[in-house]
Amino acid sequence: QLGLADLAHRHGRYFGSAVDGPALTDSPYLKILGDQFDMVTPANGMKWYATEPQQGVFDWKDGDAIVQLARANHQRVRGHTLVWHSQLPDWLTSREWTASELRAILKKHTFAEVGHYRGKVYSWDVVNEAFNEDGTYRDTIWYQTLGPGYIADALRWAHQADPHAKLYLNDYNLEAIGPKSDAYYRLAKDLKAQGVPLDGVGFQGHLALQYGYPATLEDNLRRFTELGLDTALTEVDVRMQLPATDEKLAEQATWYRDLTEACLAVRHCVGVTVWDYTDKYSWVPGVFPGEGAPLPWDDQLKPAYYALREALD
Ligand code: G3I
After folding, report:
1. Is residue 80 in some structural domain?
2. If you average pLDDT over residues 176-201, what whole number do you get?
3. Which residue is closest in CA terms to ligand 1's atom 27?
């Protein structure tokens, strides 16, 4: 039987999954990952704390393991993530830096990491989660010290280090049209006008049944396409308050179908990635107590899996 990726391929799209270290020794897991998906994103392995644990000392082993796995499976890789406020190493967050020091640190890290993976990743989430819900800049170490120009700088450096990688801005709660996605729209338009190498915007897609489906997703994707950008759903999951009843799982399936159809309906929405494919490895229960069951697989195929097939058929 064709996998999700084979079905997506007929539409010129990919279908991906996040993958993290603990799953790399789980052979039933790896079999499904290889059969169903043609894109993978390391959930943690390429983040700053993992790749530069001490200043100037780089460690590629976690990211390399996933790149090797992807190569063996003939899958592409979404690199995640270069500039973020979270999961930074202690050496970086435990003291104050001047703007010129921090700018040099960011430049060095970007060249080192993108250079190391040059030709091996399809795209980079260059800047992750740069905005607040109200559309103001998130007050991160990067923004505080460098101002908003860090975004264009990081994109330019990443482009120099790997001219073929597709460069993305990526965030959550971007699915609906609203203050946060408007902020990305304005920024993306500005960056394009200035000739900054931005290729796409990633809509993470961490959805929750209790907050309602983002009905403006398709229109929202389309307005970014009209700026000349790719879009992608980069970290999809649909969590719910536990226990997972048949009704909630059916509702969840509808959401998976609808969000996939939204991507297929919009030119240059290049693919969908789920934030791991099985509830077994989801980040959700650890962060939202009492919530979970967000993915299309548990120990078997869930209604959401069949809904994805239906959408891609
Ligand atoms: O590595 C340590 C380990 O040494 C320690 O024993 C263990 C005990 O808690 O923690 C391990 O670190 C965990 C790390 O994942 C690696 O497994 C952290 O506690 C945990 O918080 C961290 O969670 C990750 C989360 O990002 C951090 O923000 C999730 O796995 C990862 O899926 C999640 O992914 C993010 C995307 O990068 C950005 N968008 C949101 C998405 C979900 O939060």
Report:
1. yes
2. 98
3. 87
165 belongs to a structural domain: yes
**Percent of the chain clearing pLDDT 70 (strictly above):** 100
DSSP result, 32-84:
HHHHH-SEEEESSTTSHHHH-SBTTB---HHHHHHHHHHHHTT-EEEEEEEE-
Q: Would the CB of 8 count as within 6 Å of ligand 1?
A: no
CATH number, domain of 76, equals 3.20.20.80
- What are the angstrom distances between the C-alpha of 10 and each of 7, 15, 66? 6, 11, 26
For residue 14, give the nearest of 106, 91, 123 by alpha carbon. 123
What single letter denotes the amino acid at residue 147?
G
DSSP state of 13: -
278: nearest Cα among 80, 36, 86, 6: 36
- ipTM for this prediction: 0.95
Tell me which residue range forms the domain holding 81. 4-232+266-276
86 Cβ below 6 A of ligand 1: yes
Q: Residues 222-276: pLDDT tens digits?
A: 999 999 999 999 999 999 999 999 999 999 999 999 999 999 999 999 999 999 9
Cα 115 to Cα 163: distance, rounded to the nearest angstrom = 10
**Dist. CA 192 → ligand 1 center (Å):** 33
* 281 located within any domain: no
Report how many domains make up the chain.
1
What's the pLDDT at 1?
87
Does 299 reside within a domain? no
Nearest to 19 by CA among 300, 292, 281: 281
Query: What mean pLDDT value characterizes the chain?
Result: 98
For atom 19 of ligand 1, which residue has the closest CA?
A: 286
Pocket test for ligand 1, best of 19, 44, 168, 233 (most atoms within 8 A of CB): 44
Question: Atom 11, ligand 1: which residue's CA is nearest?
Answer: 44
Token pair for residue 283?
């980040």
Name the amino acid, one letter, at 128.
N
